[in-house]
Amino acid sequence: MTDKTQSIHKEWSSRFAFILAATGSAVGLGNIWKFPYITGENGGGAFVLVYLLCVAGLGVPIMIAEIMMGRRGRQSPVNTMQTLAREAGADPRWHYLGWMGMAAGFLILAYYSVIAGWSMAYIFKAFFGGFFSSDAADIKALFDDLMASPVQQIFWHTLFMVITMQVVMRGVRGGLEKAVRFFMPALFFLLLILVGYAMTSGSYQQGLDFLFTPDFSKIDADAVLTAMGHAFFTLSLGMGAIMVYGSYLPGHVSIAKTTFFIAGADTVVALLAGIAIFPLVFANHLEVASGPGLIFQTLPLAFGHMGGGWLFGVLFFLLLFVAALTSSISLIEPGVAWLVENRDMDRAKACVWAGSACWLLGVAVVFSFNIWAEYKFFGKNLFGLLDYLTANLMLPIGGLCIAVFTGWIMKSAHAEQELELPAEGFKVWYVLIRNFAPPAVFLVFLHVIGVF
After folding, report:
1. Is residue 8 scored above 70 in pLDDT?
2. 134-186 pLDDT, tens per residue?
3. Considering only 76-80, 233-237, 418-422, which range has the smallest mean pLDDT?
4. Backbone angles phi, psi at 377, to 5 degrees
5. Would you say 257 and 429 are in contact if contact means Cβ atoms under 8 Å apart?
6. Secondary-structure class of domain 3-387 per CATH
7. Is 231 in contact with 51 (CB distance < 8 Å)?
8. Which residues have C-beta within 8 Å of that of residue 193, sequence separation ≥ 6?
9. Could you tell me which residues are beta bridge partners of residue 380?
């Protein structure tokens, strides 16, 4: 590696710092926004159980593989894949896997920052009593007004991108590590406050029963595949983020043990979000299967009619903002690392270029909700297209390729050397990554493209 490549690849100061950073990458809008609504749509407890099994059997083995690839390559995802393919004597075109992951993270951040901007706007709407005594029509009108205003959305989108790039610009220890050391404990603290409030709602037990009492009559093949796909998405796999974070991991740290901590923390956050949200939904006689609007159109209705609702509304959307920020800094990091390594840029200049390009695409996403709303791509606006392209196509393909590369292309001796697992533990991982993960991810991919 060049001196500049070595410079950008400073290591995390400790295993704990990496756990916080990688957990921050995994914990995001998928946990706080998406997990509760897809759980509501798929009947609750049985879906949660299937999701947990998918995290353990599919997500964890692929995350171990991606971190291991990152640490062995010690570069951006593109350059890491070039190095690993050369080491394995494989086709050099494997570096396109790095390009696809980096592109996926870039495209996700373009619309992710817009949704994060909504959460910032709703912090202030809650603080100034925007939900107070509102009925469903008022809450819907509030959301529709935000969607119809490109000026408002661009303001919040811009502010969020500036905050994100300021963190990334400061580097591994000065920016990424300092940010997650503050924001991740804050996220858990806010979640626990909201769970505590949910316990006083009068419907706490009903919420727990819905979340943790399995009713397998509500589970079908589609729900199983949805759980599998979300387990993959929520761990930030296949988008280069975990690979580049792994490149900063010290060599003496156990990848497997660290992965279990990250997956466990990510799962706990998702479950805590459900525990905080569903009692409020039941207490206010709202619809659990209300879909993506559960957060921005259903919960504000609950906050508007509860004691101290303005405060808990502020806390909830602050939580959503924090979760989005810890993920966003990891989404842009692979691109910044590549620019520093390959385009003779310092970190600040790389952040300006990458951030500006992402911001510009985000502006187009904002326009897709209003002045460009009539323009459709395959029946979807730009927001819907990017969401579908990344979550349903690019990430599953990326995960499939990671599993195939580490299980079938990379020399097993190299993987064993990097992971330093006991013989039986390595054997279990190797069977999962070779024989279970590829067909399972391929099954998800076939489902999302509508084969069955």
Report:
1. no
2. 887 888 889 999 999 999 999 999 999 999 999 888 876 677 677 778 778 88
3. 233-237
4. -120, 110
5. no
6. mainly alpha
7. yes
8. 315
9. 377
Q: Which of 63, 403, 105 is nearest to 262 (CA)?
A: 63
3-state helix, strand, coil in the chain (%, to 5): 80, 0, 20
The two tokens of residue 358 are 């992402």
10, pLDDT greater than 70: no
Percent of the chain with pLDDT over 90: 47
Phi/psi for 248 (5° steps) reads -95, 5
Burial class of residue 196 (count of CB atoms within 10 Å of its CB; 0-12, 13-18, 19+): exposed
Q: In 193-302, where do the E strands start and end? A: none
Which amino acid is present at 65?
A: A
Q: How many Å apart are CA 369 and CA 117, to the nearest integer?
A: 14
Spatial CA neighbour of 69 closest among 300, 428, 377, 405: 405
Residue 213: per-residue pLDDT = 94
Q: How far apart are CA 296 and CA 293, in angstroms?
A: 5
What is the CA angle 247-7-336, rounded to 5? 65
Domain ranges of the chain: 3-387
Longest pairwise C-alpha distance within the chain: 66
* DSSP three-state, residue 377: strand
SS (H, E, C) 226-246: HHHHHHHHHCCCCCCHHHHHH
pLDDT, mean of residues 345-351: 92
How many angstroms separate the CA atoms of 296 and 42, rounded? 20
Q: What is the end-to-end Cα distance of the chain in Å, rounded? A: 46
Contact 10, 171 (CB under 8 A): yes
Which two structure tokens, joined as six digits, stand for 130? 């925007």
Question: 375 is written with which tokens?
Answer: 């323009």
Bridge partners, 377 (sequence order): 380
Identity at 362, one-letter amino acid code:
G
Task: Count CB neighbours of 291 within 10 A.
Answer: 12
